[in-house]
Structure formats: structure tokens, C-alpha cells
Amino acid sequence: MRNRDMYSLLLILVLTGVALWVCFAPDDLFLGRDVSTRLGLDLQGGIQVLLQADQEEISRDEMQTAAGVIERRVNALGVGETVVQLSGNNRIIVELPGEDNPEQAIETLRGTGRLEFIDPQGQPLVTGQVVRTEGNPNPTPQQTQSVTNTEIITTEVAGPVYPSITDGADLDTSQVTVGFSQGSGLGQQPAVNFAFTGESATRLAQFTASNVGQPMCIVLDNVVVSCPFIESALVSGSGQITSQSVEDRDSIYNQLKFGALPVALRVETSRTVSATLGQDSVNQSVIAGIVGLLIVALYMLCYYRLPGLLAVIALLLYTLYSFAIYRFIPITLTLPGIAGFILSIGLAVDANVLIFARLKEELRRKRGLEKAIDLGFHEAWPAIRDSSVSTLITSVILFAFGNSFGVSIIKGFALTLGLGILLSLFTAMVITRTLFHLIQSSSMVQNLWFFGIEASEVGAESGAPRPEAV
Where in the sequence is the domain holding 405, given as residue range(s)? Predict the structure, then answer.
């Protein structure tokens, strides 16, 4: 066996082991990463939220910017196959498949992400209290909404205007990280680290230096997050926000890290969406895929025999690798996404068919097995390359179209199809080829019957053997 084949075989074994680990990892964890299978809104249901801008005149660019911020926050929630798209001039539709904490998700989506430090004038404020600040003295009623199922309760904001020490625009989002508090007493609590720049950092340092022992309140979107007493000056403009739970911490982190909304949004409607297809459709899709794979395998075995067997092994590894990639990235599976995956299996077979057809032609010309294998792969490669590139171009166009217009169904189909094409190239040109080189020296496989060629066919091909024939 050539060194290249040994390295290829080692790579195949390593990839297979990793893929098996990802697909059958205990508790759906791979090296601490969640690799559970994720299903889209059409298969498992979720929530749908309609957000409306809280001001009458707003530009299209501002709404597109707001949609981008919302999409980054949604991605940070770890929800896949989401829909974030504009509706009309001042609305955004958000669909979250499989979200098990809708209230927390809605609060994360609509919060403007404006962080302020205020001077409570020596009186600590209650956590969760809605206040008026110099940065936003007239918060809109939507900023004080609380959502319970589909009921929205609005509370008017009253009270004094508290002096703002910092401006949310000076928050350095690159310094926003999650962690745990280092204070004593209550032990470690979930926390978000932050840092201000510019004038806000200067004012924060000056205020904390001259008010040691006094309270200073941290306010996010006009809601008091905490009101700690100043222990020392924050000379670097950085600090830490503690929270009562990891969920609250992550919500604060997502709002600060992924940008402030250019416009306040209120929840116009919020509803739970049941699965339109559900587990039965998933099961039927899996059965259809298995049946299709078995029919293809049977055809390959009957017509191509030994090469067909090697192709079936490569296809099984292709299916294993694909599923492992879907779980690891992760890719949320919708019914169109599953269709794209099944279609890519057929395209993977096409590559093997082209190779085996060229292989049989060379064997009929009385080539030696090793030379016929190399020529088969070499001469089939241009056709495989061109067909794969054309399909990849189509996948990219479909993905870009779905991304531009918020059509996640098309995106899911295009993504699984594109990944399938790339993976099928690897399985056809590397795995199948390596398997051929493993068995080509065996005396048993020298019989042309194993390659679907009868004795009467040998030499029947037109044209004389090439000079390089062995």
C-alpha cells in the first residue's frame, strides 16, 4: 500500500471514530458541547413574535439594522433555523423553533440594550424597578411590559429623573463577557463583565472615587438590574453586573454584546406555534431515506458488484459524517433540509457511477486492475468536478436568496445540499479510492466478474489499448 493510501485510511478511521462519538455521544455531549439533534419550527413547534417599532416615522435602514440586531441576539440564544424578517414598514417577525422559555426570549429580543449607571441620590433602588434617567427620561410603556402567555400588561412610568453617570453609546461591546462574581458573602453568582470608554469611563471613575460607600445603580433599558454600594473607584471604566440566575445573566449579556437597537420595539403579538408536520413526518422522512438508500445499494451491488459494495460502504460513511456535522455545527433540520440531505445522497451515487463506468471501460480494454482504477478516477474527475461546482453554485444562490428574504426553508435546503455535495466529493474521491487500493492486490478480485464484466466483453471496446497499458 502506498504511503498516501495509509494516510488516507488513517484519516478515514479517525473521522469515523469522531463521527460515531458525535452521533452517539452520551447525554448528547461531545467534549462538553451540546450535539443534540435540533428540529425546525415545522417539525417541533416554537414561538412566533411580531415586534413593532414604537415610533411612527422610521426609515427602512433603521428597521433593517434592528432586524440585524435581533438576529444576532437570536443566534446567541442558541436557537437554530430561526426566521427574522421585516413585515411592512415598521414590523419584524421572529420565529423561534423549540424555545422552551418564551418569556425570557421575548424580553431578550425587544430590550433596546441601553446600559446606564445612575446616581440614586443616596437611596438604593429596588431591583426590577422602572426608573426615568437623564439618558431616557420618558421611557415608552413597552419598556415596562411583562408578558404572560399572550397577555401584555403595560405600566406607566413615573417618578424623578435620576442623573446618568454613563452613556450606553460608550459601552465597549468587545469587553462584554460572561463569568461569575468574585465577591464574598453570597458566594459566586452569575455575572456579566463590561467596560466603558471615552467620557463615560472618566465620569464613572470620578463618581466612584468620590462616593465610596454610597449606592450606585445599574440600569438596563430603564429597569434597575442591581444597586450595589461602591467599594472602590472603578478607575478603568470596567465593572461587573451580577444576576440571580444564569438565564438572567445570559439575557443581559445578549442585549449588551450584540448591539443596541436603533429603535424601541414593542411586542404586538406573541403566540405559540404547534408543529405543522411533527415527529410522524420526521419518522416518515427517515423511512423514506432508508428505503431509498437500500434501493440504491441494491442496484449498485447488482450492477457493479464489488465496486458497488465499496460504494455502499462509502455512502454509509457519508451518511454518518453528514449527520455528525449537522449535530456538531449545529444545523437545525426542517423537512426541506432533510430533502436536501436525501438529494445529496443521490448526487454522491452519481460520482461513483461515473468512476465505475470509466473503470469498466478500462478493464474491457485489458488494463491491469491498478492502472484501470487510477484511470477510472482520473478520467471521471472532470465530469464530477463540473457537476458538483454547478450544484454548489445553485446552493449558494438559494442560500443567499433565503438569507436576503428571510426564507429559512430555502436556506435549510440549500445548506444541507451544499454540505452534502462537498462531503460526497470526499467520500467518492478519497474513501472509495482508498478502499479500492486496499483490495486491488488481492488475487480473488482479479476476476473481472467482480466488476460486472463478462469474459466476452473483454477486448470488445473499440480502439487499441493506450501505450501506458499494463
Answer: 3-36+276-457
CA distance 394 to 174: 36
Q: How far is CA 373 from CA 48, 352, 383, 469, in A?
A: 55, 12, 16, 12
Residue 196 shares a structural domain with residue 173:
yes
| Amino acid 222: pLDDT | 83
Q: Are residues 170 and 199 in the same domain?
A: yes
How many other CB atoms are found less than 10 A from the CB of residue 78? 11
Residue 193 neighbours by CB under 8 Å, 6+ apart: 175, 176, 177, 178, 179, 238, 239, 240
- Retrieve residue 69's grid coordinates: 440586531
With respect to residue 462, please indicate whether it lies within any of the assigned structural domains.
no
Closest CA to 79 of 128, 40, 118, 51: 40
Mean pLDDT by runs of 10 across the 470 residues of the chain is 83 94 82 77 78 82 81 66 78 79 72 79 87 81 42 61 85 85 66 88 91 88 83 82 80 72 79 67 75 85 90 91 88 78 80 90 87 91 92 90 68 85 91 89 76 74 44
Closest alpha carbon to 431 in 317, 271, 322: 317
Q: The CATH number of the domain where 257 resides is what? A: 3.30.1360.200
Angstrom distance (rounded) from CA 18 to CA 12: 10
Residue at grid coordinates 424578517: 85
Read off the amino acid at residue 2.
Answer: R
* Residues facing residue 437 across a β-bridge: none
Residue 335, domain CATH: 1.20.1640.10
Closest CA to 306 of 368, 239, 247, 373: 373
Give me the residues paired with residue 34 across strands: 29
Q: pLDDT value at position 168? A: 75
Domain count along the chain: 2
Q: Looking at the structure, do residues 71 and 117 belong to the same domain, yes or no?
A: yes
- Provide CB contacts within 8 A for 195, sequence distance 6+: 171, 172, 175, 176, 201, 236, 237, 238, 239
- Enter the pTM of the model: 0.60
Residue position matching grid coordinates 415545522: 42
Nine cell digits for residue 341: 440531505
